């Protein structure tokens, strides 16, 4: 190695060592800058992997509720994270009743990974229209599970009523950096709708004489000492009680100051929300997002998917997971994903474990991704009716595969179409190419759930003549009809046929009797007319 090369190599080692020492120093400074609440609840690991320089692991107890604030973490990180390249991962795990303050969209300098489990989350709207919106995007992984946003009604109102000034930085979150958005079993609690029953329960449990009904007006009129005792007792009963108690303290403060604490009618608030949300005019570009998981959602806005795709781009999205959310149909935005996610590289759309009964029409748009296959997972839903036409139609959509295994198939639903399906199942050559051949293989493992006498039978094992003793029912009707009760056995079918024949025979006899009666009446009428004519002609002759 010549001298110049050696000099360059030495300088490189020096700068790398300097950068490493600088980052290590920044990590240490960051820990010492944390507030006592963070230091007492968390421990820190340094140089965990190439992605992060330090990881904070925090255990939040019920006594810590609300003490861990993202705003304090921002202060500790400061601007140094941006200048030194410090990267932090934060893991928050809460005991029952534990709460943390995490204003959306959870910005903090150098915070690249955030995991929150089993927490009550406070101050969702605290960063709206503040300087915090200007903190640069840094979050790559957002993993929130089994958590509840505990929202104050006035904070929700403030955002809704100022929707025209909502910025892309707030609405889109950290769209330029986030790669994994995992938001499982996360819900919002509207305090005003729940607190009245909470106060009534607290009044009874605490035996506050004269206020057992939990009437908010009476509680607000308590003397200061009694009110303080009520609030302190209520907070010991759990997260929901504690948050409602804080809300009541705020209402009392405003009341004492003479400010109007009333809100608009809840139903009017809902109508107002829909109108105002439509006024948000921002475009989001989730340029690095690969996985969007919002499964197990207990509350999902009815226009969630519409808002999701409105003015938004997902160029690198691979996985959409909306399993366990309780929907009963495939959203239009999913059925027509080639339009709404036309730039995406979607490989999996998970809608399993819902209540979907029918897939609906999937337009056969061209596949812009060439050989890329998109799988729509519809396992463990409520799909009952299947036919060869259904699979053939799906096969005409380029790059699509629909998985409907583990659905409660009704083997008497649309009898003619189902019989046709059984016939072609006997010959794999009737299922040419992919994905038809895969559908054929899946069908060979699927079983009947209905009717009762076929429950548990492999569909592939059924014999058209011997097993399908079904009445002709059109596709889709069996969701309200117990086909098993209509046709339980060959004996029942024979009895039904015999009854029909008896009715038909009776009708034939009635018709014949009526016709004979008409003939008799017609003969008598003809004789009367002849007699009358004879009488008239006789009179004329006279």
TrEMBL record:
Domain LRRCT: 407-471
Keywords, ordered alphabetically: Leucine-rich repeat, Membrane, Signal, Transmembrane, Transmembrane helix
Signal peptide segment: 1-21
Keyword Zinc-finger: no
Transmembrane segments: 491-514
Listed name of the protein: LRRCT domain-containing protein
UniProt source species: Littorina saxatilis
